[in-house]
## 1
Amino acid sequence: MSEISLVLGTAGHIDHGKTALINALTGVNCDRLIEEKRRGITIELGFAPLKLDDGRVVSVIDVPGHEKFIRQMVAGASGIDAALLVVAADESIMPQTREHLAIMELLGVHDGLVAVTKIDRVKDEEGMLELVIDDVREFTRGTFLEGKAIVPVSSITGENLGELRREITALVDRVKIRPRSGAFFLPVDRAFVISGFGTVVTGTAYHGTIQTGDRVEILPSGREGRIRTLQVHGQSVESAYAGQRVASNLAGIDIDEISRGDVVCHKGVFKATKCFEAVIRLIANEPLKHWQRVHVCTGTSEVLARVSLLDSKQIEPGQDSPAQLVLEEPVVCTFGQRFILRFYSPLITIGGGEVIYPYSYKPRGSGPRAKIISRIEHLREAKTPESRFEYLINEAGRISKAESLQLIQDTQKNIDAIIERLTNAGKIFALDNDYVSRKHCDELVNALTETVRDYQTHYSSEAGMPVESLNTSRSLLNLAVSSGLLVMESNKVHTPDFVPENDEAFNAGKQHIKDICMSHKWQLITLDELKREAALPEKVFSKVIQGMRNAGELALIPEGFVLLSELEGEMLEILKGLGEKVTLAQVRDATGSTRKFILPILEYFDSKGYTRRAGDYRVVL
């Protein structure tokens, strides 16, 4: 027996024999609730393993047919890969037949077949069966079921069940099964407690693989738990994957912390949203207006929302339109996930669509709206997570590594491979904890280069701009250096073509400043006093002071005093000579100065880490 990653879902009008047919094919009665058995109708979703003649096992979902239970139907249909449309031979096409097929199309189902049931009831009505089959052919024209097999069967007598099984086998052979790689994503359709085990949830795995012992996140609440055990169709397994019906016993999650509509997924890959971008297709016979209130069914959740149309005031029947769904409660969805729209009242299906961008916001103004429309158009063309991420990072310029997980929605291993390919191709760059597009990176490097060039213009006699004055990340600086746009030498940065000028006025001014400061020595001079005493032109004085500060030859200390680096070193030696603990009075006496000048020096030394104040004395470090 081989479980395969494919889910077959029933569809059809109430009392057309869906549950009986599944029972005849699998031996499983999907009506498990007392109310279902009493009323003879399916209320909740039912599940059964269908073992094919070659030993493969397909998951089958039996959905309710009654119009009151469309929500449950959508919850089941959202996870299917192919449809088994059921039409009763004694009633033919009925209202829910039409609605279910429309829902299947809106949910992106591309393949399936039709079973015409209850043929035992029309045995005595000549031509009735042929008429119904002709109705089905006409009904399915232009849909994904056009030209697909139509098999007349009886669940009571078993007639043609073998033929139906063969057609299902052929269907399974041609439907592409879901890939097992990727981040695990399972919308919960049932949650209950088993005595001695705790919380159990069931659902159809949309993406990825999960194993016992894995840590998981429950969204939208954000609670975390652990997979204690896994079952697929009642059989204990060590791992489960996309396309399977999965039951999971969760450790660390109470039953009141999870319910239908929640999602069990790998941590950090998905996040809840209250606004997503989409393309809506309208199938109703009346327009859908901007900001109209609707029910949104996505995955196994149903929430109220407003439809925000981006380029029109309403959508006409049969039209597609870019839009946002502004939700009244948070949901969790993936890129490309399908959803159904129903009127707020009456509850009828009016359309559906595809999630293009899950993490949006309500725009204000025509500019942001145009940007969102453009994003929707581009992301519809992005067929892979890699192309989607490349577009989004080009749009944003810069994306954090944490954000990239949610924009790629994949395992860390697959994400690392995508990042490596884009990096090797020179399309993105890693800067600190962010990824940066090539365009934005070029802009940052060019701006950094211009900053250095501007410094060189103003301080042409210096060897370059001090690294600590750049106010940029080391990774960006290293990128600029490795690309050859900048050169770094002795903690100074300059452009490759830069040659320091021998500025006689600058050098003479610097020596003049040093001479003045040394003449005052421990009777320090303020910057304003120095400016008056130096009597240099304003431009020359400013250039000399800034150059000396950048080169570490001069510092401005508390109270506005100027301290030469030579005096700074000399004072440090004086302190060390006085012992590990010194008082201000000791320093004052050793230098022949006064408290007015010594206290600012000691405070400056405290800030530099040369000394540490402890009460009335300083500890020399």
Note: The CA atoms of residues 379 and 387 lie 9 Å apart.
## 2
Amino acid sequence: MSRHRSAPLPALFLALAAGLAQAASLAVPGSGAALWWLQILSLAVLYGLLDRSAGAASAAGRAIVFATAWLAATFWWLFISMHTYGGLSAPLAVLAVLGLAAFLGLDYALLGAAWRRFAPRNGIGRALLFAACWLLAELLRGTLYTGFPWGAGGYAHVDGPLAGYAPWLGVYGIGFLAAFAASALAQLVRGRFAALPVAGIVLAAGAWGHLPALATRDAGSSGEFSVALLQGNIPQDEKFQPGTGVPVALQWYGERLRDAKASLVVAPETAIPLLPQQLPAGYWDGLLRRYTADVSGYGLQAAIIGLPLGSSSLGYTNSVVGLKPQADAVYRYDKHHLVPFGEFIPPGFRWFTEMMNIPLGDFNRGPVGAASFAWGRQRLAPNICYEDLFGEELAARFADAHGAPTAFVNVSNIGWFGTGVAIDQHLHISRMRALEFARPMIRATNTGATAVIDHHGAVVHSLPRATRAVLEGTVEGRTGTTPFAAWASRFGLAPLWGLGIVVLAVAVVRRRAAR
């Protein structure tokens, strides 16, 4: 940045470029790698743009350009679901993606203007307020209108020096620290050094390998178990077609469930694309016999299977069932965090969904903090599709430390969004949950990423995407409670809200007192 206030048009182009860099940092197209340094660098550019803006209105404009570019480039793949599979015209699908990104970007415009209006002169104070405003904008996006925090900046740090803070602060706390470090970097470029030592200590402490170990001092192993994760790769445009995708899915998943030898077999979201009462005669009863009685010859086994449940009178749910021997009843988990426009239609938007040829509906919600599926020494906590995006909701399962999950099981079908960067982004989301809770995450998906993630957040087994195959591997369940799990299970995200609000309130009071 020059010493003079940047001209409006070049500044907006720079905001656009920085937003695109922020999107790339989450998962680089092609490699899928998360680049923590690029996320900090792009935020440093945003800080500089806000710092050199003419006032609050100018800062808001630059912030919304940054946010719109970042978010649209992050979830551009929504275009695929709306246009390729939904039949919405390409121009309307593009406008829908841009409109959603700009709408969500209003949170960043608001907080960008607040930072420009109330930023103190002190370098550390300016960096702290920038981090607080970034935190509040991220929390707003992740909460309002059921929340859509996909692409939060903290996910760029699953492999970076700040990853060590995950079991302490969660993904939003990491975003706060990254924003502070970005502020220090931007100040360094302008010859200001006050915030630099603090940022250096933060990064060095995160890189120190003992942080995660300190967070899980009471942790232990709940034992190892073998898994078979089924990836059917059913074409999305055929998945619910009775003459094509449905019979293929029923045959392939039925055979794999019948022949699997692992102690736990997992089939993805809506792997069985019909209600149990709609299945061919004997199909459902055959699955029940296979897993509720030891008839396989492979020892005691359990299965987690994704399928819809319900009826026209009771309503429908996106669910998984858990089958195991000697159980009093079939385990059932119903998805709680439903996808807007996919699993429920927001009021006033039915006209929009009627423009698309996608099987949409209004599903019933399951409870937050549902009971785990007990199997041997393990307590397996299912979550469906993008539910693993909401760490504060998964944390509710740790309210009772003695009944806390020993492993998470994510079943997904994001075939609606192609086989590109959406898969990489979702994998990093699951990896962050593994880091936050120090728990393995088992992922069974239709098209990818089908993988086993250990409690350190590392992918230890995976399948190539867009292939029809079975992933076999071993998982070690874990016990213990991380600090993040402890406070988030009791208070949700309230401590982070409190941090952001207090820092902003102090800045407002000091600015008014200085007048």
Note: Residues 36 and 160 are 6 Å apart (CA to CA).
